[in-house]
């Protein structure tokens, strides 16, 4: 591991997963492959939902922005870790660390917002089909996405403003592969961190409210599905909801588990695994999850792969 005076350095030391040089290189290669797969998958979703006339419904419009957020989120943490691992250095400057905090929290907030809007879209499509085109008009969809993106700067700005006031007097060792807010708070030597805790409580309350909105949407959705007389109809409708439900479950469950667990100076393998799930695997797997049972998406991917023109 890269060595310097960690008590006086201006930046932080990201411990990552191992001090062994061979393992660091192996981890870098694994993260690089995962990043390339995730970037390719999300880029394909963005491309086909932009170009294919059959993928212009609100559901795919929201999916495109979810993929944009996933691609952006992956790019915040993974390249930095790959670079550090290849160099054998865990050092990250103070500015780079603050930028990671800002963009990671911003994109996570945006993803929660988009997933909430997507659940509402499915609720309207299944429970209020006759009013769908009126409620989910192009103007409404654009407004919802704009609010999601603009509001994503709120948590990032609040975290940066409060973390800047923290005095770090302990050894600046972050037991994580990126600048994780709970780990940064452990380095504080005073009650300065209480303001960051306040921001965390605020963002958690908003995320919980979004979670409740998603749950209520699916309560109505499942109630409607189970009242359908046709088994084939129930199966078809359920298949449109399953990918979103899997994505929400994967992202929120791993995120909640990671942040509700007390931070430790010696994180376990489970702690690292949870962090990998919500920072790396979730945005990488989302395009796969959405494409598995969606014939329209798979058709769009085949068109792109065969380099044919998108036609109506």
UniProtKB/TrEMBL annotation:
<keyword id="KW-0552">Olfaction</keyword>
<feature type="transmembrane region" description="Helical">
    <location>
        <begin position="141"/>
        <end position="166"/>
    </location>
</feature>
<dbReference type="InterPro" id="IPR017452">
    <property type="entry name" value="GPCR_Rhodpsn_7TM"/>
</dbReference>
<dbReference type="GO" id="GO:0004930">
    <property type="term" value="F:G protein-coupled receptor activity"/>
</dbReference>
<dbReference type="InterPro" id="IPR050516">
    <property type="entry name" value="Olfactory_GPCR"/>
</dbReference>
<keyword id="KW-0297">G-protein coupled receptor</keyword>
<protein>
    <recommendedName>
        <fullName>Olfactory receptor</fullName>
    </recommendedName>
</protein>
<dbReference type="GO" id="GO:0004984">
    <property type="term" value="F:olfactory receptor activity"/>
</dbReference>
<feature type="domain" description="G-protein coupled receptors family 1 profile">
    <location>
        <begin position="41"/>
        <end position="290"/>
    </location>
</feature>
<dbReference type="GO" id="GO:0005886">
    <property type="term" value="C:plasma membrane"/>
</dbReference>
<comment type="similarity">
    <text>Belongs to the G-protein coupled receptor 1 family.</text>
</comment>
<feature type="transmembrane region" description="Helical">
    <location>
        <begin position="272"/>
        <end position="292"/>
    </location>
</feature>
<dbReference type="InterPro" id="IPR000276">
    <property type="entry name" value="GPCR_Rhodpsn"/>
</dbReference>
<keyword id="KW-0675">Receptor</keyword>
<feature type="transmembrane region" description="Helical">
    <location>
        <begin position="25"/>
        <end position="49"/>
    </location>
</feature>
<dbReference type="InterPro" id="IPR000725">
    <property type="entry name" value="Olfact_rcpt"/>
</dbReference>
<keyword id="KW-1003">Cell membrane</keyword>
<feature type="transmembrane region" description="Helical">
    <location>
        <begin position="237"/>
        <end position="260"/>
    </location>
</feature>
<keyword id="KW-0716">Sensory transduction</keyword>
<keyword id="KW-0807">Transducer</keyword>
<keyword id="KW-0812">Transmembrane</keyword>
<dbReference type="Pfam" id="PF13853">
    <property type="entry name" value="7tm_4"/>
</dbReference>
<feature type="transmembrane region" description="Helical">
    <location>
        <begin position="193"/>
        <end position="216"/>
    </location>
</feature>
<keyword id="KW-0472">Membrane</keyword>
<feature type="transmembrane region" description="Helical">
    <location>
        <begin position="102"/>
        <end position="120"/>
    </location>
</feature>
<keyword id="KW-1133">Transmembrane helix</keyword>
């Amino acid at each position: 591991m890269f060595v310097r005076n960690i008590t006086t350095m201006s930046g932080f030391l990201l411990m990552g997963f191992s001090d062994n040089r061979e393992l660091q290189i192996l981890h870098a290669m694994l993260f690089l492959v995962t990043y390339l797969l995730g970037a390719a998958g999300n880029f394909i979703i963005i491309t086909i939902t932009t170009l294919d006339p059959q993928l212009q419904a609100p559901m795919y419009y929201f999916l495109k922005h979810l993929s944009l957020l996933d691609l952006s989120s992956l790019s915040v943490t993974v390249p930095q870790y790959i670079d550090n691992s290849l160099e054998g250095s865990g050092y990250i400057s103070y500015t780079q660390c603050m930028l990671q905090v800002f963009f990671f929290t911003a994109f996570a907030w945006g993803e929660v917002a988009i997933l909430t809007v997507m659940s509402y879209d499915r609720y309207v499509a299944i429970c209020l089909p006759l009013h769908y085109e009126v409620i989910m008009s192009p103007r409404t969809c654009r407004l919802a996405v704009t609010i999601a993106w603009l509001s994503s700067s709120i948590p990032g700005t609040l975290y940066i403003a409060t973390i800047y006031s923290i005095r770090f007097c302990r050894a600046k060792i972050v037991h994580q592969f990126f600048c994780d807010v709970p780990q940064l708070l452990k380095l504080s030597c005073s009650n300065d961190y209480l303001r960051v805790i306040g921001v965390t409580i605020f963002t958690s309350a908003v995320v919980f409210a979004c979670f409740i909105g998603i749950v209520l949407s699916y309560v109505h959705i499942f109630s409607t599905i189970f009242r359908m007389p046709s088994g084939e109809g129930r199966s078809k409708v359920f298949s449109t909801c399953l990918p979103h439900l899997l994505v929400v479950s994967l992202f929120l469950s791993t995120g909640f588990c990671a942040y509700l667990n007390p931070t430790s100076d010696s994180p376990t393998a489970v702690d690292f695994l949870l962090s990998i799930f919500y920072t790396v695997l979730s945005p990488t797997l989302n395009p796969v999850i959405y494409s598995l049972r969606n014939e329209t998406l798979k058709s769009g991917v085949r068109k792109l792969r065969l380099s044919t023109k998108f036609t109506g």
